[in-house]
Amino acid sequence: MQAALHPYIDVHAHIGQTVSRARPIGQDLARYMARMATSSVHAAIISPTAGGPQSRGVLDTKAQNLEIAEACKAFPGRFPIGLGVVEVRHETAGVDELERSIREDGLLGFMCHPILSGHALEEELNPFLEVVNAHGGLCLLHLSGTSAKVAAYAKRYPDIAFIIGHASMSLEVEHDIVEHCGSADNIWLDLAQKPDPEEDLWTLHKLVSRVSLSRVMFGSDAPYYDYRRVQHLIENSSLSEAEVAQVAYGNAMILIRKFKPLWELPMAAVEVPTGYPNNDIWITNGRRLT
Ligand SMILES: [Zn+2]
Hints:
Blueprint (H helix, E strand, L loop, with lengths): L7 E11 L6 E3 L1 H9 L3 E8 L9 H17 L6 E5 L5 H15 L3 E4 L1 H4 L8 H10 L2 E4 L6 H9 L4 E4 L6 H11 L5 E4 L13 H7 L5 E2 L10 H8 L5 H19 L18 H4 L2 E2 L2 E2 L1
Parallel strand pairs: 1-3, 3-4, 4-5, 5-6, 6-7, 7-8, 8-9
Antiparallel strand pairs: 1-2, 10-11
Helix pairs in contact: 2-3, 3-5
């Protein structure tokens, strides 16, 4: 697949292993950086994979959060924002771990994948959101049912920036998001896992005619998906060059600077870490990375 033309900021990348599904799939930091290096992704908002190891309970979550924090500390230009992960069954211990990861490790919020973490995006997530709201932070939410639930969170927690992952996963999902979240001041959308090759009614132009262009951002959903397809779609859309740049990196840059005002997007590509040849990192099974 052709290299992307623009620098990209990826607002939706996961580091770690998903082990709660057969077969396990994941990527360590070096593997993701090798992918970044060969796909024009210059910076990213990273979080653990959902469905990670849990044999030790919240201690495993702590280890997953620490891995993200260490990546952000090692490469602050590439990873200006790191998010933790939350599991509904950890209850208060999970809330405490989130608080610790923000206070001690500098994470800015959390990623929630309701299907894999047991959440319903209802009141059970409020104690976690209270923690983020107290610090002023960011949450990446995968949907569970209607996005009206995210709109309710956004209203209740105006100091949190919410990103809805996979906003255009299907036309039904996108319509629901436009209806409930399209005019919220603190909700952004990512394009992870678009396009679906079978979905020829969808265009980026249509999406940005229904929500503010400034809210739409590139997200990879690495390590699950060959996200170069999404880059290809963005670059071949009917948007102007300036609008494409906004979706590729400009909007994400503004969002990141709300929290890291001095952060600059590195204009040089990531260096490929040794041991990850290009032909190994882009092996796919259909649209899925393996
Ligand atoms: Zn995701």
